[in-house]
From TrEMBL:
Domain of life: Bacteria
Coiled coil residues, start to end: none
Record-given protein name: DNA polymerase III, epsilon subunit
Gene Ontology molecular functions: nucleic acid binding
Species of provenance: Chryseobacterium rhizoplanae
Length: 173
């Protein structure tokens, strides 16, 4: 199994009515050097300016991004090329990130290479600490910049820390 840490930026709270602006993925290995980055053209006329501002892009810039189907096909190929065994989706906030990635895969490709489940980094950390309020973001080495590759890399660093320093039993391939 290969763990793929994912982070997305969007211009609103839900896929379909709003758009995924960009996303990043990092294959969780010691090196954290296998990454994917996609920027997607909006699929809706609706957008929340405050949500879009988090990404650092203007609406005009996003209109020139890549066709979502093309990006999702490239991401699927990246997953197949870089994963060993079943790829496992993991993110800091998988209720949000998974919702967009899963919807986009099914909407544009009719399938999702991750299957039907995902993992949440925060829950793993809280479980290891036996504290549902445990804070973990201080463990990141890479600054949280809202560039989704940076953010996914920082979150992958936390997963590696949990394996190496906290005893999480996880097979990373």
């Amino acid at each position: 199994m290969s763990y793929v840490m994912v982070d997305i930026e969007s211009d609103g709270p839900i896929p379909g009515d709003f758009s995924m602006v960009c996303f990043g993925a990092v294959l969780v290995t010691q090196e954290l050097d296998t990454t994917f980055y996609g920027k997607l053209k909006p699929i809706s006329d609706r957008f929340n300016p405050d949500a879009l501002a988090v990404s650092g892009f203007s609406r005009e810039e996003t209109m020139n991004f890549d066709n979502p189907e093309t990006v999702m096909l490239a991401f699927e190929d990246w997953i197949k090329t870089n994963s060993k065994g079943r790829p496992i989706f993991i993110s800091d906030n998988n209720g949000f990130d998974w919702m967009f990635i899963c919807w986009y895969f099914h909407h544009f490709l009719g399938r999702n290479p991750f299957g039907f489940s995902s993992r949440r980094l925060s829950d793993l950390y809280c479980g290891l600490e036996k504290d549902t309020f445990a804070q973990w973001k201080h463990v990141r080495k890479t600054e949280h910049t809202h560039n989704p590759v940076d953010d996914a890399r920082g979150n992958a660093e936390v997963l590696l820390h949990m394996k190496e320093e906290m005893g999480l039993k996880i097979a990373l391939k």
